[in-house]
Design goal:
The complex is a heterodimer.
Chain A: E1 2-4, H1 5-11, E2 12-13, H2 18-27, E3 31-36, H3 38-41, E4 46-55, E5 63-68, E6 75-79, E7 89-93, E8 98-99, E9 104-105, E10 109-111, E11 114-116, E12 119-120, H4 148-151, E13 158-162, H5 173-182, E14 187-188, E15 206-209, E16 219-226, H6 235-243, H7 251-263, E17 268-271, E18 279-283, E19 289-291, E20 297-299, E21 305-309, E22 312-316, E23 320-321, E24 334-340, H8 343-353, H9 358-363, H10 372-387, E25 390-391, E26 395-398, E27 407-410, H11 413-418, H12 424-433, E28 437-439, E29 445-449, H13 460-471, H14 494-508, E30 512-513, E31 519-520, H15 522-527, E32 546-547, H16 552-564, E33 571-579, E34 587-596, H17 616-629, E35 638-640, E36 647-657, E37 660-668, H18 670-676, E38 682-688, E39 714-723, H19 728-737, E40 743-752, E41 761-770, H20 779-797, E42 800-801
Parallel strand pairs in A: 15-18, 30-33
Antiparallel strand pairs in A: 1-13, 2-14, 3-13, 4-5, 4-7, 5-6, 7-12, 8-9, 10-11, 16-24, 16-25, 16-26, 17-24, 18-21, 19-20, 21-22, 22-23, 27-29, 28-29, 31-32, 33-34, 34-38, 35-36, 36-37, 37-38, 39-41, 39-42, 40-41
Chain B: H1 3-20, H2 24-35, H3 40-47, H4 53-92, H5 105-108, H6 113-127, E1 131-132, E2 138-139, H7 141-144, H8 155-158, E3 175-176, H9 182-190, E4 195-204, E5 215-225, H10 230-245, E6 252-259, E7 262-275, E8 278-281, E9 286-296, H11 298-303, E10 312-319, H12 320-328, H13 341-347
Parallel strand pairs in B: 1-4
Antiparallel strand pairs in B: 2-3, 4-5, 5-10, 6-7, 7-8, 7-9, 9-10
The chains are: A alpha+beta, B alpha+beta.
Keywords (chain A): Aminoacyl-tRNA synthetase, ATP-binding, Cytoplasm, Ligase, Magnesium, Metal-binding, Nucleotide-binding, Protein biosynthesis, RNA-binding, tRNA-binding
Pfam families (chain A): B3_4, B5, FDX-ACB, tRNA_bind, tRNA_synthFbeta
Subcellular location (chain A): Cytoplasm
Chain lengths: ~800, ~375
């Protein structure tokens, strides 16, 4: 919302400096977004008289001028303008002045050997127009020594405030003046509008034809003015409109814009000669369209309210009028419309048609119903003043709604909500100066009726806001929030703790945390088994269209992007939500990591101590390490070869805890990578954190008894030759099971396939640790256990001890 | 010449040989030659048996003295040789200590700045008695808008650039939450006041340019009890800003504003000084808008089944990405979600950089 200072002062008696006004506007919630103040920018430029203009001795195109600036002693100025001549009045700036059009600060100097102590300026140099052909040539009666901006009427600062959507009253300059007056920076002048008596009955009829939607247009007031001469509006009005960014059209149109800005009351004017028959307000119909005043043609439908004559729509109600019936220089009879339109319908229509007009801006926020008649009167007065003519009586279709709302307001509510003591009389004065009607005495519950221009006020809290914003939020003292009467206990939920642990753990394994979009391309989501119902209805782009069913896609694509920038060895993880349905809550917290290139667990990149490509066992280690950190006993986990289809079938596994699938790891399927356009090999794991069982709640924090044997453990190595297809995990299980009370550990230290071992066979070497509990083992006892181990492994694997 | 007379010469000969022994084997040969069963000193000792007691007394002492001297010389030389051997070995074992080592994950791993900032927020607000709440990304229109006092069809809804899920047969459609505020509703519906929670999380709006991404992070704060007022709100936000930006004082400007779900509503600016890309808080003449807040609207309290004449409280919301950028100086929001390893390496945090109020948020 833009307005000029002088326009504001039409309604506000105020001598305070502009800075005070601006600060107050922001302080009361009308945030000043900008002020353009030509007078301030041009304060150094004054009107001067050129006494003489002689040819420069050393330059053909320069003149040496003696300039009377009004200070008494003439100043010598070297000037390059072709129009510089003795006797003219122009604009002078002394050294030290900032020249906006040149973005320099003027200095005193010597130009081609002649001293120059200032500058005579062009309009372009003042940034008031593009004219740079010569210095400003002012009329002879321009007053010497006076600030040019003041003389030229450029000293009316334009103030731009950002209005919050709850303040339709401040789409009127009168509304802004009222807030300022309430805040004490001036006195509100009388806003009274004198009616213009009609001299004949209005012969035009407007009919409201809104069966089923009477709320679309509760009231439509109008009157006819006959015999107008519609030309350009007066200079002061044009200047104001231009200052706030509106293009003057003609007097009748300019008047509607003026009343809209001044009073927040949008109006429309129809050229009566161009109307065919009576006007009807109705819903749009099949086939309705309108060429609007912006030159574009809009197709209208049954959700929109239109004004039509016998020939079709003439206006998109409350948003924009039509070209066919618009007023121009030939208009002699004009119909002025001052109607009330339903905010929601206006908002929906404006959105649908993508029209952002000043009328829509006001109607969708809520126009003061009681301004319907006065707005029409003000427009009539201005029209008659500017264009002559005779006004008819006013006609009204519908009724102006009764907006009486009374709020019970215990004045103690102010202190309850803001925590500060504001004297009751002060609250009362604030509300009254904003136009609220109050009944009741100090200490009682007041009855408060908001004014007709404040549709946003409904309850006690709204009234508190009015009081506090006007008295100032700085009156509210910061008050410490009372502490709980105890040491703060832990507050994180199990899932929140798990997410934290997961992130720190994976980072500690050398991975970098990524945050990728929650939505991915539909075809990518399909690769990772997306359920139905995950597509957005209005995606921002096709590659961000579907809620992700897995974090792997986003990370795989991130690996590719990094590779495209020659960062090939990447280890990335993300902990975030994945979606398995389109209903709220159909999502899980997932932890996912990928490794690519040489990004192994023990360090990325080539290294003199040895470099190898990351492989499945790196991501298996990541997954197991994570599960272990989250309290899952690794011994209880089962690996099954049924990882999801986006993994390499021979190089992947699901991680199970009984029937529960916690996640999976492996090499990504070449087909999946190909579809994602990710080259090479990519390893990944993904764990669904929501599926992990809850830890058992223990009564105490003690760790349990530690029994350390004093007896030496015994270690024995075995090498078995087993068929290649045997899972080493089964071999280990068999060895461990040979004598559970004695065998404390089985580790694999060599797996070999090739020369020396038969075709289709592999050699697996294990170290078995025996931990005796109550006596040292004899050689015979050790041999017995060894024999059991060999027998168990042989039975379980079909292999044999390697000879 | 008696054996006695030979002793000095023998001593000289033996000591010279011991001093000249070049390695442990030569030294051992000398030991055997002198002190072994058939050694020269042992041979002298063997002669004692044939001597008279008086003679033995004198000779015995002299020969044993020679034996001690030789033994000591052997030990000394042995130790010298061992030292020399060790020196040679150590020299031969010298390595190039400039060869680079592999950094462990503790040095190379990184935590994303968003996670770090959420951990900072959690630490600060935990101290003020707040828990952490979360909620779903796909949200009902009811929770995202209606219960937060955004009436259907209201233009304020349009300002949210909402992402919609497909419409259901009954015409309703879920949304991607446009703010973390629906979790206010979920919290009030499931928890009895007093309530103090922060709600960090992902939020979505259909908007994209240098300062807007279709997904971003917000943190919401909510306090509901029977007495918390705007003065408390001011204090909480001031304390938060000081703690988060790690400055002793921060000047804040509260401006009246409007949000459907708070009344009265405010926007908050903080004082700062900008020099180039650098922003400092607690000094300077500029104001930077950082958050919106207010007293929870009575309609919202009522919508959650509480009586707004008994319960009251406040809420605020701010952009996590934005305060991360302000504190740590990332210039471009879009890079947050690009997973560029170089960006994460530079702007990310080490795994053990755990923010705490005890040790300082950023170390």
């Amino acid at each position: 919302m833009k307005f000029t200072l002088s326009w504001l002062k039409d309604h506000l008696d105020c001598e305070r400096p502009l800075d005070d006004i601006a600060t107050t506007l922001t302080r009361v919630g009308l945030e000043v977004e900008g002020i353009s103040d030509a007078a301030k920018a041009l304060s150094g430029f004054t009107i001067a008289h050129v006494i003489s203009a002689e040819q420069h001795p050393n330059a053909d195109r320069l003149r040496v001028c003696m300039v009377d600036t009004g200070s008494g002693s003439p100043v010598q100025v070297v000037c390059g303008a072709p129009n510089a001549r003795a006797g003219m009045k122009s604009v002078f700036s002394p050294p030290g002045t900032y020249i906006p059009g040149k973005k320099i600060t003027l200095g005193a100097g010597v130009i081609r050997g002649v001293e120059s102590n200032g500058m005579l300026c062009s309009a372009a140099e003042l940034e008031i127009s593009d004219d740079h052909d010569g210095i400003l040539d002012l009329p002879a009666d321009a007053p010497l020594g006076v600030t040019y901006a003041a003389w030229a009427g450029l000293d009316d600062p334009v103030i731009d405030v950002a209005l919050t959507p709850n303040r339709p009253d401040c789409t009127a300059i009168t509304g802004i003046a009222r807030d300022l007056a309430a805040a004490g920076v001036g006195a509100l002048k009388s806003l009274e509008i004198k009616p213009v008596a009609g001299s004949f009955p209005c012969a035009i009829d407007v009919r409201l034809d809104l069966p089923g939607n009477p709320s679309w247009c509760p009231a439509f007031a109008y009157r006819l003015i006959r015999g107008v001469r519609n030309g350009p509006s007066s200079a002061w009005l044009q200047k104001r409109l231009k200052a706030v960014g509106l293009r003057p059209i003609n007097a009748l149109v300019d008047i509607t814009n003026y009343v809209s800005l001044d009073r927040g009351r949008p109006l429309h004017v129809f050229d009566v000669a161009k109307l065919t028959g009576a006007l009807v307000v109705r819903a749009g119909r099949e086939g309705d369209s309108l060429q609007a005043l912006d030159g574009r043609t809009y197709t209208l439908d049954a959700t929109m309210c239109v004004i039509a004559d016998d020939a079709g729509p003439v206006s998109i109600a409350g948003i924009m009028g039509g070209e066919r019936t618009g007023c121009d220089e030939t208009t002699t009879d004009v119909l002025i419309e001052s109607a009330l339109w339903d905010p929601l319908t206006i908002a929906a229509t404006g959105r649908k048609l993508a029209i952002n007009s000043d009328a829509r801006y006001r109607f969708e926020r809520g126009v003061d119903p009681l301004m319907t008649m006065p707005g029409l009167e003000l427009a009539t007065k201005l029209a008659v003043d500017f264009c002559g003519g005779d006004a008819s009586d006013i006609k009204l279709a519908g009724t102006i709604p009764d907006i009486d709302r009374v709020i019970d307001f215990p004045v103690s509510e102010v202190k309850r909500l803001i925590g500060a003591d504001i004297p009751h009389y002060e609250s009362k004065i604030v509300l009254q100066s904003l136009g609220f009607w109050i009944s009741g005495h100090q200490g009682e519950a007041w009855k408060v009726a908001p004014p007709s221009w404040r549709p946003d006020i409904h309850g006690k809290a709204d009234l508190v806001e009015e009081v506090v914003r006007i008295v100032g939020l700085d009156r509210v003292p910061a008050t410490p929030l009372p502490r709980e009467g105890h040491v703060m206990g832990p507050v994180l939920t199990l899932q929140q703790k798990r997410v934290r642990t997961t992130k720190r753990l994976l980072a500690a394994r050398g991975m970098a945390e990524a945050i990728t979009w929650s939505f991915i391309a539909k075809e990518q989501a399909a690769l990772f088994g997306a359920a139905a119902g995950l597509d957005l209805a209005n995606p921002i782009s096709s590659d961000l269209s579907t809620m992700r069913p897995s974090l792997l896609a986003g990370l795989a694509l991130a690996a590719k992007r990094n590779g495209d920038k020659s960062v090939h060895d990447v280890a990335l993880f993300e902990v975030g939500q994945i979606f398995h349905g389109g209903e709220p809550g159909e999502q899980s917290m997932s932890a996912c990591g990928i490794r690519r290139g040489l990004a192994k667990v023990n360090g990325a990149g080539r290294h003199w101590q040895g470099s190898a490509s990351a492989d499945v066992f790196d991501v298996k280690a990541d997954a197991l390490s994570l599960l272990s950190a989250l309290g899952i006993n690794a011994d209880a986990l089962q690996l099954t070869r049924d990882a999801p289809a986006w993994f390499h079938p021979g190089r992947s596994a699901s991680l199970r805890l009984g029937p529960l699938v916690l996640g999976s790891f492996g090499e990504l399927h070449p087909r999946t990578l190909n579809a994602l356009d990710v080259g090479g090999t990519l390893l990944g794991f993904e764990i669904n954190l929501d599926r992990l069982p809850k830890p058992k709640v223990k009564a105490t924090r003690t760790k349990g008894h530690l029994a350390l044997s004093v007896l030496q453990p015994v270690r024995r190595d075995f090498a078995f030759v087993v068929p290649s297809g045997v899972a080493v995990g089964d071999l280990i299980k068999a060895a461990r099971g040979a004598q559970k009370d004695l065998i404390s550990r089985v580790s694999v230290f060599d797996v070999y396939e090739g020369k020396g071992v038969g075709e289709g066979q592999k050699s697996v070497a294990i170290e078995v640790t025996l931990q005796p509990q109550d006596k040292t083992l004899t050689d015979a006892e050790i041999d017995t256990v060894a024999a059991k181990i060999v027998a168990e492994v042989t039975r379980a694997t079909g292999g044999s001890l390697r000879s | 010449m008696t054996a006695m007379d030979e002793l000095p010469a023998l001593q000289t000969t033996l000591l010279t040989a011991i001093a000249a022994a070049g390695d442990e084997a030569a030294l051992e040969a000398l030991r055997i030659a002198a002190l072994g069963k058939k050694g020269s000193v042992s041979a002298l000792l063997a002669t004692l048996g044939k001597m008279s007691p008086d003679e033995r007394k004198v000779q015995g002492a002299a020969i044993n003295a020679l034996k001690d001297i030789v033994s000591a010389a052997l030990v000394t030389r042995k130790s010298e040789l061992a030292e020399k051997t060790l020196t040679v070995r150590l020299i031969s074992e010298t390595i190039d200590i400039t060869l680079p080592v592999r950094p462990s994950g503790l040095e190379s791993g990184r935590i994303h700045p968003i996670t770090q900032v959420i951990d900072e927020l959690t630490a600060i607000f935990h101290d003020m008695g707040f828990a952490v709440a979360d909620g779903p990304d796909i949200e009902t229109d009811e929770y995202n808008f209606t219960m937060l006092n955004f009436p259907p069809g209201h233009p304020a809804r349009e300002m949210h650039d909402t992402f919609f899920m497909p419409a259901k047969p009954d015409g309703t459609r879920h949304v991607l939450r446009t703010h973390t505020s629906p979790v206010q509703i979920r919290t009030m519906l499931t928890h009895k006041p007093p309530i103090r929670v922060i709600i960090p999380g992902r939020t979505y709006r259909c908007d994209s340019d240098q300062t807007h991404t279709p997904m971003f992070h917000q943190v919401e704060g909510l306090v509901i009890d029977k007495s918390s007022h705007m003065g408390h709100l001011k204090w909480v936000l001031e304390e938060f800003c000081k703690a988060f930006f790690e400055v002793n004082d921060v000047k804040m400007r509260f401006r009246p504003s409007h949000f459907p779900f708070t009344e009265p509503s405010m926007e908050v600016d903080i004082q700062c000084r900008r020099t180039g890309d650098d922003i400092r808080f607690g000094e300077g003449e500029d104001w930077l808008e950082i958050l919106g807040c207010g007293m929870v609207h009575p309609n919202v309290i009522r919508n959650c089944g509480l009586d707004p004449d008994i319960y009251q409280g406040f809420a605020w919301g701010l952009g996590i990405d934005r305060i991360a950028m302000l504190k740590y100086g990332m210039p471009d929001l879009r890079a947050f979600f690009d997973a560029d390893q170089r960006w994460i390496d530079h702007y990310g945090f080490r795994p053990l950089d755990l923010p705490s109020l005890v040790a300082g948020l950023s170390g």
